[in-house]
Design a protein that fits this description.
446 residues, alpha+beta, Aminopeptidase, Alpha-Beta Plaits, 2 domains, six-stranded mixed β-sheet, four-stranded mixed β-sheet, 25% strand, hydrolase activity
């Protein structure tokens, strides 16, 4: 396998990722209890400054919500700049559930362990390693690179990318394309001749993300009386209808291209019109959880709240529903939701972020594919849609074309998707070293 030697970046990437994980940047979704972002961002700024960067530290609308920006000038600054972005916050973790402490950054058994190891302090560490190497060695990339390390992604970016885009658009001046998380990882598929092919999934689309509050109101009363008008009952029935509903099948361009590529490599056939399409996707293994979720809108009830005493019928009952909407489906999705919950239930958006989709073509896509092939000749990049969301939703509002490309060559047996927000989150050391080499190659040819 051909290698581009990056001794400095490769030699320090594991230590950087481990150090990043040791910052407990748990995002609870509440300003009062979210912590660690300021300290982590300041440490990132220090690592960049040590290498010679001028950095800008910004708190995005609330104390402690730390963000760091730095720019590396390229050979042709008249070209649109490329932004490499990563978020510093992570979802919380219960230490008692883990094999190692989730904020230890332990390196053992060939893995770096801890909360954020794949979401997304692995990518942040690779970015830092390459950024430091470029600056120290005087490397001049083809175009300007903006390094962005941001807060609050795990809560939709209200106190991170959304605030920055609205209040500090100057930080993104000249940026035309951006690369972030949840893409570039490998999926190994068997080929008809008995060999295997590694497909590297480049994220070109994201479903819309919306957290919806449902509320039912009725007359309060004594729990022993007959109540035809009960807010808890009204809400529970609406939630059940919504939670058990199957939304229509929609195959976007990104999903269609992904399925076609997998079929071509594996010989497996996928008929999106077939009633058992989910069963067909199961042949892909664990990745089918993500791909299957991109075929339909979803509305999953996640929270319920009602009442304050066992013998009192409450006046109000509320639920929260996590909604993910296929690109182009928002208006129809809301019409379906209204029909399901009925006229006696109010709804409002707590958070509503648009879907995003771009095409799998152009110079930047070619550079991704070339970088993968330079370090894995048996690899192939393919587009896919993410069932969740990233900070790309905010950056797209500025007209920036966004991709997910955090390259990792993964062991075929690793259930990678289960590690996102999961217990014992970890990333292979070899994958980090591979990804650092690929990232350097990519940025030198972007």
């Amino acid at each position: 396998m051909a290698e581009t030697h990056t001794p400095r970046a490769v030699s320090e990437v594991v230590d950087l990722v481990s150090a990043l994980i040791r910052f407990d940047t748990s995002n609870t979704g509440e300003l009062e209890t979210t912590k660690g972002e300021r300290e982590c961002a300041q440490w990132v700024a220090q690592q960049l400054q040590e290498a010679g960067y001028e950095t800008e530290y910004v708190e995005s609308g609330a104390p402690g919500r730390g963000n760091v920006f730095a720019r590396l000038r390229g050979a042709d600054s008249s070209r649109g700049a490329l932004m490499m972005h990563g978020h510093l916050d992570v979802v919380p973790a219960e230490a008692a559930d883990w094999s190692v402490h989730p904020f230890s950054g332990a390196v053992r058994d060939g893995y770096v362990w801890g909360r954020g190891a794949i979401d997304m302090k692995d990518m942040v560490g690779m970015m830092l390693a390459v950024a430091r190497q470029f600056k120290r060695e005087g490397t001049v990339p083809p175009r300007d690179i903006v390094w962005a390390f941001v807060a609050d992604e795990e809560n939709g970016g209200r106190w991170g990318c959304q605030w920055l885009v609205e209040h500090r658009p100057d930080l993104f001046e000249g940026v035309t394309e951006a690369v972030g998380e949840v893409g570039g990882f490998s999926l190994t598929v068997p080929r008809p001749d008995g060999s295997e092919r590694r497909l590297y999934l480049v994220e070109t689309a994201e479903k819309g993300l919306g957290w919806m509050r449902l509320r039912a109101k009725a007359r309060a009363g004594h729990g022993s009386f007959l109540h035809e008008d009960n807010a808890v009952t009204i809400l529970a029935q609406a939630v059940a209808r919504l939670g058990t509903h199957t939304f229509p099948l929609v195959v976007s361009d990104s999903v269609a291209e992904f399925l076609a590529a997998v079929a071509e490599e594996s010989g497996l056939q996928f008929d999106p019109a077939a009633p058992d399409i989910e069963g067909q996707l199961a042949k892909l293994g664990t990745i089918s959880r993500i791909i299957g979720a991109t075929l339909r809108d979803t509305a999953n009830p996640t929270m319920l709240r009602a009442g304050y005493k066992a013998n009192v019928i409450p006046q109000t009952a509320e639920a929260v529903v996590d909604c993910r909407v296929v690109p182009g489906r928002q208006a129809e999705f809301e019409r379906e939701v209204d029909a399901l919950i009925g006229p006696d239930v109010e709804r409002e958006w707590i958070t509503k972020l648009d879907s995003y989709e771009t095409t799998f073509d152009g110079h930047l896509v070619d550079a991704m594919n070339d970088a993968i092939l330079a370090h894995d000749p048996a690899g192939r990049t393919v587009p896919y849609m993410l069932s969740g969301g990233t900070d790309a939703k905010a950056f797209a509002k500025l007209g920036i074309r966004c991709f997910g490309f955090a390259p990792l060559r993964l062991p075929p047996e690793l259930d990678f998707t289960a590690l996102f927000h999961g217990v014992d989150e970890r990333v292979p050391v070899e994958s980090l070293e591979f990804g650092t080499r690929v990232l350097e190659h990519f940025l030198l040819h972007s």
